[in-house]
Amino acid sequence: MKRKDIFLRDFNISFGGLKVGLHEYEFELSRQFFESIEYSEIEDGQLDLTFQLEKQSSLLTLYFDIQGYIVLPCDRCTEPTRVDLDIHERLLVKFSDEDFDSEEIVTLPVQAHDIQIAPHVYEFIRVNIPLKVVHEDEADCNSEYLDNISGIAEDQLDETDAEEDIDPRWEALKKLKKD
Prior knowledge:
- The protein starts with a helix and ends with a helix.
- It folds into two domains: 3-127, no CATH class; 142-178.
- The chain is α+β, with helices and mostly antiparallel strands.
- It is elongated.
- The protein is 32% helix and 35% strand.
């Protein structure tokens, strides 16, 4: 068995022997969690997960409360930056031999007695990452990298301006526009 599979086994929640009612679990998510997830973009983090499983006779309701931070590359300078997260999600689990999964409902076979929550936890984290991940203070960005990028962008703009002056097709169009 692979090391990551052994680590993720902790996130396999057995509900078969549980009584009807609310059951609470606590986990710490760190670099090891994100390294265990295949193709994870998240470099590091420190998150606390409070997980509640409400068992009913024919349905499970899962509650995920995740607080802490993750480390991702800055969209501006590509250096690692901290992203704070405060996530509260709910997932319903129904039992059926037919596959029917949606954003809020997961289907398990009728004979199932456990559920692996790691993929759901990771998905909730990914969905709650802001669209733009940047250092809060631009001064924290890698200034050398930003200077290089802005220099390249200026060079490209200069080349574009030069091409517009040289290309005769544009000159012909400009004459039409003037007339």
